[in-house]
């Protein structure tokens, strides 16, 4: 095992020496008094936070007509009322003490107030990051950075992190470089996503651009900005990108095989947006799923059914599979109903009654006249097909079929048209006298009208 570099021990020793000097300074009488004052302020803020937070919540609920950003700001204040109250009380005490005594007598209280103010500000600013895990990581890193900065430990901490390094020939990778690269990259990605979100909102207000084109521009812009953000972040951290050519090439090949499905879904999403075969609001059927397109994502498409279920269909399935788009070119949809009638009924009257029954349903289009034809002569009935048109498939298919079936049922009952159904006959046969003197039973199924 390779021993640690002497630079690591020197940096760690410098950090430990500064910590000891800081702790020794805290033992001075006038600083102990400030520590007691800070503890007292923290207890006051801790016990006062709950009633103040409850009052603030009640007050916010009564704010009718407030915009969302005002309500969200009020909620953020309510969530951080403890640290805000502590910082406010600390600054008030510092102002009073500097009027009555030397500024050095309140130096530690001012330091605690500065750290608390920085923590509160970081809590507000990091709310712009939507991803919860990323927001927490950024918040904790910013809190640590601010604390080290105000305590004047930042320089020795940077020296320690810079001494923890690995060397690959002429390339040196330290913990400080990695942290800088991550910080710069995260900041650039957040800025890129905010800018992309801003452009998306602007595009949504432009009625001259089709929805699918808006989505395409937004996705392409977001991908380009995030890629540039990563490259700029890595370059700003001091990495020489030309030295990683071979590594990134091999990594790209590996990711290409490992993320084959993901890349396929991404490319399929762009194909769907380009050829406009499917767009938000279309009614589609894929397999047993029937619903309308709620959102076209980069990796999947959201399909919402009439029962409220939301299916996330991979874009690859929409490109390679068979999809029925009920509203691709227009909203007109023809539906087929199959039914049977008795041989004793006149087929001409049956078709006329069925057509008139379908026209009694409001959603059936009268301008596209329904038709009814005989499709065959079955064992127990004459088979018919009724075809009619609707113009609102988004309102559902099963329900309008059910309404037409019910109208046909009522019309047949009213006009005396019989609907055939299977019947069962049980015949009891007597055996010959020479055989056993016992009855024999025979059960047959007869499909009669």
Automatic annotation (TrEMBL):
Q: Which residues form the Mechanosensitive ion channel MscS C-terminal domain?
A: 339-419
Domain of life of the organism in this record? Bacteria
Compartment(s) where it occurs, according to its Swiss-Prot or TrEMBL record? Cell membrane
Q: Which Gene3D superfamilies match?
A: 1.10.287.1260, 2.30.30.60, 3.30.70.100
Q: Name one Pfam family in it.
A: MS_channel_2nd
Q: How does it sit in the membrane?
A: Multi-pass membrane protein
Annotated membrane-spanning segments are 35-60, 81-97, 109-129, 141-161, 173-195, 216-235, 241-259
A cellular component annotation (GO) from this entry = plasma membrane
Domain Mechanosensitive ion channel MscS positions: 262-328
Enumerate the UniProt keywords alphabetically.
Cell membrane, Membrane, Transmembrane, Transmembrane helix
Entry's Gene Ontology molecular function annotations: mechanosensitive monoatomic ion channel activity
Keyword NAD in record: no
Concerning its family, UniProt says: Belongs to the MscS (TC 1.A.23) family.
Alphabetical list of PANTHER family matching this protein: MECHANOSENSITIVE CHANNEL MSCK, POTASSIUM CHANNEL RELATED
Q: What is this protein called?
A: MscS mechanosensitive ion channel
